[in-house]
Amino acid sequence: xxxxxxxxxxxxxxxxxxxxxxxxxxxxxxxxxxxxxxxxxxxxxxxxxxxxxxxxxxxxxxxxxxxxxxxxxxxxxxxxxxxxxxxxxxxxxxxxxxxxxxxxxxxxxxxxxxxxxxxxxxxxxxxxxxxxxxxxxxxxxxxxxxxxxxxxxxxxxxxxxxxxxxxxxxxxxxxxxxxxxxxxxxxxxxxxxxxxxxxxxxxxxx
Length: 206
Ligand SMILES: [Fe+2]
Ligand SMILES: [Fe+2]
Description:
binds fe (ii) ion; Hypothetical protein af1432; mainly alpha
C-alpha cells in the first residue's frame, strides 16, 4: 500500500502548538482551522460521552477522548473529502461518494492517529463509526454514537431526543436502536442510507 507522506499531516499543524493532551489539542486545532463551532460541539460530545459511559459502566477516559476527536476532520470541505480519503488510502463506498459529508468519520480516525498520536484502537474505531455505527460495534462505539446524537450539532433539540433519553434509562442498546430506527423509518427520504447503519440496524433489531 502507498505510504502517506508524514508531511501531509505535519503541514496541517504548521502554526499550531500541540501539547499531547487531546482535550486541549483538538479545540486548538479546530479553532486554528476556522472551525470554532465544531470545537464547541466536540466539547459537548466529549462531556456527553463521559456521562453516558459512566451511566452504562463503560470506560469514561476512552469515551471522552473519542468525543473530543470524533469530528476533528471538520476542516476539510465536504466536496474534497472523497479525494482526501483516497489520498490517505481510505476506501470510499459508493454511498459516501454520493454523500461525502459522511466520510468525515473516517478522516477523523486518520487524523486522530496521525496528528493527535492516538493509538488506542478502541478509541479510533469509535471515532470512525460515530455517525453511522456499524455491524458488531463495541460498547464504546455505541457510547460515542449515542453521545453524538444527544449533543447534536444542529439548532434546537434533536427530534428523537426524548425517546432516546428515555431508552437510555433502559439500556445502551435501546438508545442506539432508537436512533437507528429513526434513520430506518426515513430511509426512503434520505439521500443515502449508509450500509454500516443498515447493517447495525439489521443486527440490533433482530
Ligand atoms: Fe460527526
Ligand atoms: Fe459530531
